[in-house]
Design a protein that fits this description.
The chain is of the alpha/beta class and 294 residues long. The chain contains ten helices and eleven strands. The structure holds nicotinamide-adenine-dinucleotide.
Length: 294
């Protein structure tokens, strides 16, 4: 029997509607205050990577859709690290900005870790700052990286119970695999994280109740990796030689074995930008409630 398709399109549309509703409520409750500040997101793009430029345009469009004010900064590819850190410092102190995101990857002469660490942890809506990473691994409230958060939200909003399940993650990157392992552990899953040096990968994956592929290799996860009825989350976004976007999972084969599966496109990818909006709203609330305490 064919798997249930978990639609990132439908789930992200519902989340965006809720965010828009909440922001509309906030704005109308404060409509008599001309100085009231709408939630705002600053997005920095360094250089002209065409893929990154598309991502940044999408973020701006979705900000408009949900009512978040967006501030775009497009910097020359030769921008110095000192100039980029200066801009981040200005944005850290800008009351109109509640979230700051610097689009990765950066040109080679810039130190990504230094840039991520310069963003104020309270405005770090990508959840990449070492403080947020540390809080996540301690199970404390923090800003969580959007893609792994999107995976967990998809499971929860599809009514899939995580607690006690064996979750196998393929990939240990800092932006997907590692933070997802912490999130799933916080949700009481039993977590196995695998990577390019893992032995007996197929056997381990076949033990998964929930299998997450975050590898970056088109169609890598075939039917042999999947237990009958398992939930399969495909994070991969790969452009094949025919220019089609495909996931890390061989969908047409795995859909006949899995119980539920996310498609590519139309799956996790759509959730990432939506969760960025959710994180911006969370950062806004955190900042506003801190100011109210002063
Ligand atoms: P990455 O290159 O940083 O990490 C890939 C991981 O896969 C590594 O940990 C590596 O050990 C593992 N791996 C590689 N070959 C393997 C093999 N043969 N067997 C087992 N493990 C292997 O990639 P990333 O940034 O984590 O991205 C992974 C994929 O997810 C990419 O396709 C990327 O485009 C996609 N992605 C999607 C979103 C989204 O919004 N949906 C966000 C981020 C990344």
């Amino acid at each position: 029997m064919s798997a249930n398709i978990i639609s990132g399109k439908e789930i992200s549309a519902k989340i965006r509607e809720r965010i828009k509703y909440e922001i509309d409520e906030i704005m109308s409750a404060n409509s008599d205050n001309p100085n009231f500040i709408r939630p705002g997101l600053a997005v920095i793009l360094v250089g002209e990577d065409p893929g990154s430029a598309i991502y940044v345009r999408n973020k701006k469009r979705i900000c408009e859709e949900v009512g978040i004010r967006s501030f775009g900064y497009v910097l020359d590819a030769t921008t110095s690290e000192a100039d980029l850190l200066d801009l981040i410092d200005q944005l850290n102190h800008d009351d109109r900005v509640h979230g700051i995101l610097c689009q990765m990857p950066l040109p080679k002469h810039l130190d990504e870790f230094a840039v991520i660490s310069a963003i104020s942890p309270v405005k770090d809506v990508d959840g990449f700052h070492p403080i947020n990473k540390g809080l996540l691994s301690m199970g404390k409230e923090c800003l969580v990286p959007c893609t792994p958060l999107g995976c967990v939200e998809m499971l929860k909003l599809s009514g899939i119970d995580i607690s006690g399940k064996h979750c196998v993650i393929i990939g240990r990157s800092n932006i997907v695999g590692k933070p997802l392992s912490a999130l799933m552990l916080n949700e009481n899953a039993t977590v196995t994280i695998t990577h390019s040096k893992t032995k007996n990968l197929k056997e381990i994956c076949r033990q998964a109740d929930i299998l997450v592929a975050a590898i970056g290799k088109s169609g890598f996860v075939t039917g042999e990796f999947v237990k009958e009825g398992a939930v399969v989350i495909d994070v991969g976004i790969n452009r094949d030689p025919d220019n089609k976007v495909r996931g890390d999972v061989l969908f047409e084969e795995v859909v006949e074995i899995a119980g539920s599966i996310t498609p590519v496109p139309g799956g996790v990818g759509l959730m990432t930008t939506t969760l960025l909006m959710q994180n911006t709203l969370q950062a806004y609330h955190n900042i506003i409630s801190k100011e109210a305490d002063l």
